[in-house]
Design brief:
By secondary structure, the protein is of the alpha/beta class. It has 2 domains: 2-57, no CATH class; 64-263, Rossmann fold. It has 8 helices and 6 strands. A 6-stranded mixed β-sheet has the order 2-3-1-4-5-6, with helices on both faces. Helix 5 (151-166) crosses helix 7. The longest helix is centred in the N-terminal third of the chain and has 30 residues, at 2-31. The termini are far apart. It is a single-pass membrane protein. Belongs to the SRP receptor beta subunit family. Belongs to the small GTPase superfamily. Arf family. GO terms for molecular function: GTP binding; GTPase activity; metal ion binding.
Length: 266
C-alpha cells in the first residue's frame, strides 16, 4: 500500500511539472514574433520536402551482374569459374539461382583492395526464367550465355528469350547493358561469335514481324524493339549490346570479367 501511495504522489508531481513546462512553453510562444514562427515553419517544411526528394531519387546503386540464357548453355559452370576457378560444381543444370557475393577468382592474388561482385546465375528452364524479373532492379549488367556448340538447334529458343529480355521495361528504361556470351568456343565445331550475332539478329527480326502483327491487347512485351522500317540490328537497342566469346570449361572468360568490371567498379 505504501508503494502505491508513493507512486500516486510521484504521478501528481510529474503532472504538475508537465503543466509548468507547458505553461512556460505557451508564454514563450506568445512572445515570439509571428514572422519568426512562419519562417521556422517554412524552413521545417522545406527541409522535409528535400529529405523526401532525396529518399525518392537516391536509390541503391546497381551492382549485380545477372547470368541468363537457356539451360545447358554453361551459365553455372561460368558462375563457379568466376567464383573459385573451378567448374566441377557447375556440371549439373541448376534449378535454383546461384547467388554469390565474392571477389573474382582472377583478382584474389592482386594486391590492394578489390571490391567483391554480386553475381546471380538465373536458371534457364522456361518455367523458372520469370525469376529474372525479381533481380532486374538491382542489375548493373546482364550476361546472356549462348551455347556456341549447339547453337543452331537452339537458335529460335535463345532468340525468343533474348527478345523478351531486351523488351523488358526495366532493361530499356535503365539501359542495362547486355553481353551476349558465346560459350564453349574452344570446341572445333563451335560457331563464331559473328555467325551467332547475325543469326540472332535474323531471328529477332522475324519475331519483330510476327509479334507486331498481333493485336496490342495480346502483346506481352513492354517495349517495341529496333527501328521501324529497318532490319533489326543490336545497335538499334536503347541499351548497349555486345558479343563476346568464352569457354567456361577451359577457364577462358577474360571478356566476361572485363564486362563485369566495366559496370561494377573494383
Amino acid at each position: 500500500m505504501e508503494g502505491l501511495e508513493l507512486l500516486k504522489e510521484l504521478a501528481v508531481q510529474w503532472k504538475k511539472q508537465a503543466e509548468q513546462w507547458s505553461s512556460h512553453a505557451l508564454q514563450y510562444f506568445h512572445q515570439v514574433p509571428p514572422e519568426q514562427i512562419y519562417a521556422a515553419i517554412a524552413v521545417l517544411l522545406f527541409t522535409s520536402f528535400l529529405l523526401l526528394l532525396v529518399r525518392l531519387f537516391k536509390r541503391p546503386k546497381a551492382n549485380t551482374i545477372l547470368l541468363s540464357g537457356l539451360s545447358g548453355s554453361g551459365k553455372t559452370v561460368l558462375f563457379y569459374q568466376l567464383r573459385d576457378g573451378s567448374s566441377h560444381q557447375g556440371t549439373v543444370t541448376s534449378m535454383e539461382p546461384n547467388d554469390g557475393y565474392f571477389v573474382l577468382h582472377s583478382e584474389k592474388s592482386k594486391g590492394g583492395k578489390v571490391n567483391p561482385v554480386h553475381l546471380i546465375d538465373v536458371p534457364g528452364h522456361s518455367r523458372l526464367r520469370a525469376q529474372l524479373d525479381d533481380f532486374l532492379p538491382q542489375a548493373a549488367g546482364i550476361v546472356f550465355v549462348v551455347d556456341a556448340l549447339e547453337f543452331l538447334p537452339n537458335c529460335r529458343a535463345a532468340s525468343e528469350y533474348l527478345y523478351d529480355i531486351l523488351t523488358k521495361a526495366t532493361v530499356v528504361r535503365k539501359k542495362i547493358p547486355v553481353l551476349i556470351l558465346c560459350n564453349k568456343t574452344d570446341k572445333v565445331t563451335a560457331h563464331s561469335k559473328e555467325f551467332i550475332r547475325k543469326q540472332l539478329e535474323k531471328e529477332i527480326e522475324k519475331l519483330r514481324a510476327s509479334r507486331s502483327a498481333i493485336s496490342a491487347a495480346d502483346i506481352a512485351n513492354d517495349f517495341a524493339l529496333g527501328v521501324p522500317g529497318e532490319v533489326f540490328s543490336f545497335s538499334h537497342c536503347q541499351n548497349k549490346v555486345t558479343v563476346a566469346e568464352a569457354s567456361g570449361l577451359t577457364g577462358e572468360y577474360s571478356q566476361v570479367e572485363q564486362f563485369v568490371r566495366e559496370h561494377v567498379k573494383s
